[in-house]
Write a structure and sequence with these properties.
Distance between the termini of chain B: 31 Å
Number of helices of chain A: 4
Number of strands of chain B: 6
Number of strands of chain A: 6
Radius of gyration of chain A: 17 Å
CATH class of the largest domain in chain A: Alpha Beta
Largest sheet of chain B: 3 strands, antiparallel
Structural class of chain A: alpha+beta
CATH class of chain B: Alpha Beta
CATH architecture of chain B: 2-Layer Sandwich
Radius of gyration of chain B: 18 Å
Order of helices and strands of chain A: EEEHHEEHHE
CATH superfamily of the largest domain in chain A: K homology (KH) domain
Strand order of the largest sheet of chain B: 1-2-3
Oligomer: heterodimer
CATH superfamily of chain B: K homology (KH) domain
Shape of chain B: globular
Helix content of chain A: 25-40%
Order of helices and strands of chain B: HEEEHHEEHHE
Number of domains of chain B: 1
Structural class of chain B: alpha+beta
Helix content of chain B: 25-40%
Distance between the termini of chain A: 39 Å
Largest sheet of chain A: 3 strands, antiparallel
CATH architecture of the largest domain in chain A: 2-Layer Sandwich
Strand order of the largest sheet of chain A: 1-2-3
């Protein structure tokens, strides 16, 4: 079954001096997030941006895929802490996404964990959708 | 330039802009079927947004998902891109409403794929017409890096209307 998720944004004025707001999303989980070009391309302060939202989407997708892969290989994770850092070069586009993950996974080795992280990186739906990014890397290590 | 990759209108301010990094963190506990995660933005703009398999492929019940975050990214990116295109042609928008809908579907091999992102824009712009808006709306999508990426494996559609236009309300 297909699932749709919608986000609504309003924008006022031109690009350089105008501003926008992510008003609402299907789930209602967040809204009222301001965005503008200066925050996006220079100092973010406390404002989100398309690239930060992509980072959030990718880290979330990757974590779920890795959790699934580990469970399928018989060593479910107790906890995964992941991050995604999106590099945006204005004028060029998104040039890199760096995923990092630290996991508490009883019964698995560093090598198995790294392999599982690579597989999750390659196969999660957001990775597939962003496969055109020139470099997507993953750094995986076990904790404790 | 923001989303734009080829527009002359925005090339001018692209030069000299250094690269930008944006991060987000996720903590996941438990397995996929019953576990859950929490998503936080490095800027603090949002934090500890819960999500789960159910919120992703079934009813959201107040929880976000990777695809919803991608929809938010695409809508925000496209709004900036369209504002740039309109301003670049001398008609900056008074107001833009942009919706992005990202569709996740199960494909033949049983895996889930993002199959579509649908952009719908409603613009309040002085002194432009529907044909010009449609042209700029298409360039705005083509110039958006996220559109380019998603288009490689999914369908991106754009539908733009002028506010006050008989077809637009």
């Amino acid at each position: 079954m297909a699932t749709d998720r919608t986000a609504e944004v309003t924008w006022h004025g031109d690009l350089m001096s105008g501003g926008g707001r992510i008003d609402s999303v299907t789930s209602g989980a967040f809204g009222g997030l301001d965005v503008d070009w200066v925050a996006r391309s220079q100092d973010a302060q406390t404002k989100t941006s398309p690239e930060e939202l992509i980072a959030a989407a990718h880290a979330a997708c990757f974590s779920m895929a890795l959790s699934n892969g580990l469970a399928q290989s018989g060593n479910p994770a107790d906890e995964l802490k992941a991050s995604a850092t999106v590099t945006f070069q204005p004028g060029e586009g998104i040039t890199k996404i760096a995923l990092q993950v630290a996991g508490k996974v009883p019964g698995t080795s560093e090598e198995e964990f790294r392999q599982a992280a690579e597989t999750a990186k390659d196969n999660c739906p957001v990775s597939k959708a962003l496969a055109g990014v020139p470099e997507i890397s993953v750094d995986a290590r076990l904790e404790g | 330039m923001p989303c734009l990759q080829q527009s002359a209108a925005t090339d001018a301010y692209a030069s000299g802009v250094p690269r930008v990094q944006r991060s987000a963190n996720v903590t996941w506990e438990g397995n996929v079927a019953r576990g859950s995660g929490a998503i936080s933005a490095a800027t603090g703009a949002f934090s500890k947004l819960p999500y789960s398999l159910a919120s992703r492929v079934e009813r959201p019940d107040g929880q976000t998902s990777p695809e919803e975050l991608l929809a938010a990214a695409h809508a925000a990116c496209y709004a900036m891109s369209l504002a740039g295109e309109l301003a670049g042609s001398g008609t900056p928008p008074d107001h833009l409403d942009v919706h992005a809908t990202v569709t996740l579907d199960q494909v033949e091999d049983g895996s889930h794929r993002i199959v579509a992102s649908e952009l719908v824009a409603r613009a309040r712009v002085q002194e432009t017409d529907a044909a010009t808006l449609n042209k700029l709306a298409a360039s705005a999508s083509e110039g958006c890096p996220l559109t380019k990426l998603i288009e490689a494996s999914a369908t991106v559609t754009v539908n733009a209307t002028l506010e006050g236009d008989p077809d637009g309300d």
